Amino acid sequence: MKQNIVLVGAPVEEGTGRRGCLMGPDAYRTAGLAATLEALGHYVLDDGNLQPVTVDDIRPPNAIVKNFGAYAGWTRSLFKKASDLGTGDSFPIYLGGDHSLAAGTVAGQAKAAAEKGRPLFVLWLDAHSDFHTLESTDSGNLHGTPLAFACGLPGFDAVLGTPLTHPVSANRVEIMGVRSIDEAERDFLVRHGAGVSDMRRIDEEGIGKLLHPFLNRVRAENGLLHVSLDVDFLDPDIAPAVGTTVPGGATFREAHLVMEMLHDSGLVTSLDLVELNPFLDDRGKTARLMVDLTGSLFGRRVFDRPTRSY
Question: Residue 28: is its pLDDT beyond 80?
Answer without folding.
Answer: yes
